[in-house]
Design goal:
With about 100 residues, the chain is mostly beta strands. The chain is built from one helix and six strands; from the N terminus they run αββββββ. Helix content is about 5%, strand content about 35%.
């Protein structure tokens, strides 16, 4: 199951991490967890606050205890700003890259 998740670019369903830092000018964040916690490169993640998904991320790089992820354009709700400490969980839906449309 873990191998299937890795091969299909899905972070482990048990993953729960937080945003460690935010780089809005470059459109990415770093996470407080990496592959030791089940973050997988090219996987989709949801940023959750108050039980609601407020943004979507696409994991771009993973190390043992940290990862970086692009903020998916147009996924951030217009009246919301990402904050350090926001909860990040595996995404519920696949994100189709704009180049595939």
């Amino acid at each position: 199951s873990k191998i299937d998740d890795f091969n299909n670019s899905r972070s482990l369903p048990t993953l729960k991490t937080r945003i460690r830092s935010i780089y809005p000018n470059w459109g990415f964040v770093t996470l407080a967890s990496g592959n030791n916690a089940g973050v997988v490169t090219n996987s989709n993640l949801d940023v959750v606050r108050g039980g609601e998904t407020i943004a979507k991320l696409l994991v771009t790089a993973v190390e043992s205890s940290t990862a970086s992820a692009s903020i998916v354009p147009d996924s951030l709700k217009s009246d919301v700003t990402l904050m350090v400490g926001d909860q990040v969980v595996p995404g519920q839906k696949a994100i189709v890259p704009a180049s595939a449309n």
